């Protein structure tokens, strides 16, 4: 007897094909990254005008960016300069010595009654590229930058297996709930690993800041306060989602077991 396909079978098949395509792209990306790292002196590969990788050597490191734009830039006739932030009044050389004053204001073109401060903090992780003369640091960064891709591939594999279970009418079997729980476990493990990596990167990198200086006049400028924090890269949201997935899968599994016991009793 030929079983009738499950509801939304075509949608499930389409999702499976898409997941397989994403897995293929991720696998190729991982293979290319390993090939470039192990066999090429440069950090990219060119094939027929197509470039994969980065022309600037370095490894991707996650960090949280903070940017503070000075409210006022003051230039003096002597050639010096000063950045005043948050209406702070620094040195005063007299009105005659001031050559120019530049004001930085973030304005809303739609509503001018709103004032936006010049402090900008990114809540999401950003990536910087870094390379060191220390080979241990480079090896650590080379390994850790590929771990995200490895977790991504495992995540895709689990989703493909769950899609197959749905298409085979096995989505409500106990082993399927173990797969669902593994998604949550994978999310939590990835964030725990991110926390450990961020802590190590924070020790290595500390809190790098932007330094601007002139090669001709031998002057330094601090007119833009840009810094990165590598300690705070973990996502509490992902950990919460992982815990929620595990709890929901356990609740559903227990509900299915109770239903099966009731059916056997009847």
UniProtKB/TrEMBL annotation:
Does this UniProt record's set of keywords contain Transmembrane? yes
User: Which residue ranges run through the membrane?
Assistant: 21-40, 149-167, 179-200, 230-252
| InterPro entries on file | DUF2975
Q: Which UniProt keywords are present, listed alphabetically?
A: Membrane, Transmembrane, Transmembrane helix
Q: Under which name does UniProt file this protein?
A: DUF2975 domain-containing protein
